[in-house]
Amino acid sequence: MKAIIPVAGAGTKLRPHTYTQPKALIPLAGKTILSIIVDQLVEAGITEFVFVVGYLGEKIQHYVEQKYPQLICHFVQQTSREGTGHAILLTRSIVQDDEVLIVLGDTIVESNIKEIIAAPHSLLGVKKVDDPRNFGVGEMDEHHIITRVVEKPQIPKSNMALVGLYKIRETVQLFDCLQDNINNKIKSHDEYQLTDALECMIHHGVKMQAYKVTNWFDCGRKETLLETNAILLKKQMPFVIPPFENTIIIPPVSIGEHCNIKNSIIGPNVAVGDNTTVNYSIVKDSIVGSFSNLHEVVLKSSLIGSDANIRGLSQSLNIGDNTEIDLG
What we know:
By secondary structure, the protein is of the alpha/beta class. It has 9 helices and 27 strands. The protein has helices at 17-20, 33-43, 57-67, 84-89, 92-95, 113-118, 171-183, 194-203, 222-236; strands at 2-7, 27-28, 31-32, 48-53, 72-77, 100-103, 107-110, 122-128, 136-140, 146-151, 160-168, 208-212, 215-218, 248-249, 253-255, 260-262, 265-266, 270-272, 277-279, 282-284, 286-288, 293-295, 298-300, 303-304, 309-312, 318-319, 324-327. Helix 7 (171-183) packs across helix 8. Mean pLDDT is 88; it is low at 16-20.
């Protein structure tokens, strides 16, 4: 089985960070979004991956090749952003007729991946939500067989959202439906959607079962990313945090390697990247990237990119990479 991870999106809702950093490489609870996804799949026994890259794709390729040299990795370029359906179709020559596990690159789910892989039918990961209008939605019968899928319906007939996790056995039919949709210009919300191809497969008799995931974390916006960071930090406790000079650490926190922290209060719910310097500062409920420098700042509910230099006093920031701010 191969894993397909589409990571070609521009991540517009996370700007300014995604001007210089792919969304999948944003730090989260001591890792990156992408490494959390890949580690979960590797633990389940998957060793071959197909990454669909686009915007800043060379950074993703470099990251994967450096961090996972033991894996078989393919990189497919999506030069025009035409939707997830278009992205998946680009992998056809690599996947051929192998079974695939598709995991969207901005979604973290908690589930039994080994159980999903071993299932006798194709599976679609689902989770009950209060308002399903912003998601793909799966309708199902009393046996949890998917009878219909719709992308972002205005009047949903189900509150079971598709969470971005798909185990597909019938890959020949998948690619045929994707190609037919593109040939016939079948789009939803101006893009070629994977959801529409799945609906085509269901219409042609492919059996798909709903798989209810344990948890589903949205990493597409600053607010939800910070919430996800806090949840994952709590799940990963306890962390081994070395002592820092005249500094109070309030768990849960994750502090990267080679950080220089003095005279500060860090936590709760803080993730700090490698080689970052913090002095005379208070940081809580925030993510701080690598190689950043914070001096005399008060940060809460903030997302700070890598190589940022911040001096002065602040309350809530959303700062991208390579940024210098003096608030004194």
